[in-house]
Amino acid sequence: MRGSAVLGQVVTFGRVLREAGLEVGPGRLADALTGLDAAGLARQDDVYWTLRTTLVSRPEDLETFDRAFAAWFLGAPVRLELRPRADMPARALRSVPAGTRADESQAPDAGEEETGGFSFEETLRNKDFAEMTPEEIQRARRLIAQIASERPQRRSRRLRPSPRGERLDLRRLVRASLATGGDPLERPYRARVDRNRKLVLICDVSGSMERYAQALLLFLHAAHGSGRGVETFAFGTRLTHLTPELEKRDPEAALAAAAARVVDWSGGTRIGASLKHFNDVWGRRALSRGAVVVILSDGWERDDAALVGREMARLARAAYAVVWVNPLKGHPDFQPLAGGMRAALPHIDRFLPGHDVASLEQLAAALAGIERRHAA
């Protein structure tokens, strides 16, 4: 199985477990991917125990995990009952039939066809955004919103009570021992908790990206729903700050406001000048310091490509990690021949495609499991 397929399977399986009530966050998904990389996929038992060890945290969830694993990976004739959660919409509280994808947990709309056992939404996962009709883009919007909820994490400096902590909580230890005559019968521990890392998304809306811009801007809009610390920009011949527009709850209103704000939509491309503006203005405000910066562009630069390299080097020194998403990378015959793309490559931590929903799932998995650059 290809690496991208493994990422998609694990990320979507984690979504199934979350809908079933398990506490499966980005950190656990990253541990699962690391474990599968070490254990391999040759034996079913290795896959089962790796996923069970990394994705299950409570004994009462073992039965639910076993049923989900059997239904998802083995096609066993079982039904997984979804349990309500505080952050789960009521329309998602349905059962997932065996052998279906997580996206099929909601019944298809009237007139929606199924092909070869896969729902209509499943066919959209691997359809190029450039080939989608406006109606299909709207149908894919819900899938993109689910994907964009994944965020890069950072370890907080604050300590919280944790049964798996490494530091002894002396204050709680002394307080509890008062009730037992000074004998510390239990040893409470503390651990650092994970917080969302700052996320900066910079999307190319020039003419060469016109076929992909709408879908990628839907991803930018949905990312704002993942919590605080998200900043969004667009560029063609100049850089435009879009965070106020894309913070609107209604996607259509947000995209309309963004289109009205960007004056160089579907025009030329000046990547180097736009990155220089970002570094000079927003970098000085420490926006990129410690952040994960995602650039969504095909890398076509009409000006001097050397400027792209210099500004990417500046950005890489300030950011925690730099991810470049190129929709053209999803095509089999792709080669990074564009001058801007070649100049940027030495300063990129992750180079990913972004041409369909499945590739955005790969991006979400990469953000959830991203590690510090070795050069940092």
Polypeptide structure, described:
The protein is α/β, with parallel strands linked by helices and 376 residues long. The chain folds into three domains: 3-107, no CATH class; 157-195, no CATH class; 197-368, 3-Layer(aba) Sandwich (Rossmann fold). Helices cover 41% and strands 14% of the residues. The protein has helices at residues 3-19, 26-39, 44-55, 62-73, 120-125, 134-147, 170-177, 210-223, 243-246, 251-261, 271-282, 305-318, 339-344, 357-368; strands spanning 79-80, 96-97, 153-161, 167-168, 189-196, 199-204, 230-235, 239-241, 292-296, 321-326, 350-353. The strands form three sheets. A six-stranded mixed beta sheet has the order 8-7-6-9-10-11. Helix 2 (26-39) packs antiparallel against helix 3 and helix 6 (134-147) packs parallel to helix 14. The relative contact order is 0.11. Residues 82-118 and 372-376 have low confidence and may be disordered.
